[in-house]
Amino acid sequence: TQLLEQSPQFLSIQEGENLTVYCNSSSVFSSLQWYRQEPGEGPVLLVTVVTGGEVKKLKRLTFQFGDARKDSSLHITAAQPGDTGLYLCAGPQGGKLIFGQGTELSVKP
Amino acid sequence: DTAVSQTPKYLVTQMGNDKSIKCEQNLGHDTMYWYKQDSKKFLKIMFSYNNKELIINETVPNRFSPKSPDKAHLNLHINSLELGDSAVYFCASSQVQGIGELFFGEGSRLTVL
Q1: Confidence (pLDDT) at B52
Q2: Contact A68, A52 (CB under 8 A)
Q3: Nearest CA of chain A to the CA of B53: how many Å?
Q4: Contact residues, chain B, for A41 at CB < 8 Å
């Protein structure tokens, strides 16, 4: 059983469209992180959300932590081809960071 | 200057062989990790070391033996390679064990034929 469920697993959209990626759990997390991984590279941290209900913005990316700290979302406005990659949510559990199964985003010009 | 560097980037080998992957971090972190990313891109922790001491071993077969000669290095040796070991192995480090930002290397893609 996956502790962090991400949806959708795959997303292919046109440049300029908006999209939302979800990360859900039945467990409460003290914080959640979002990483982006490009082909041939390791994941790189985008943001950490810590407080229930928190909203953080990174240019066209908006991250939200659920009020109950069991879920998070990543919204991208006006997606660009440079946003293409694997988006991973991660949370601390039992002294280690566990990851969702990822969302592969492809933005076509 | 690469923060977390691992070598080699690619390994192709036959079943039954032994191989090693090396990892070094220059961030001054106390904690280092090995993660395995399978063909479905799922990233799963294998080992965690804190200041050269093994902290987490996620029921990995004992064919996998990590070694940390000092807190800046964490190597992974794999004996008797099997087809199912084919994956991308990532080394990572963090300032604090189990929480906070992970800094990943570029990954080592292992293909077992």
Answers
A1: 87
A2: yes
A3: 14
A4: 106-107
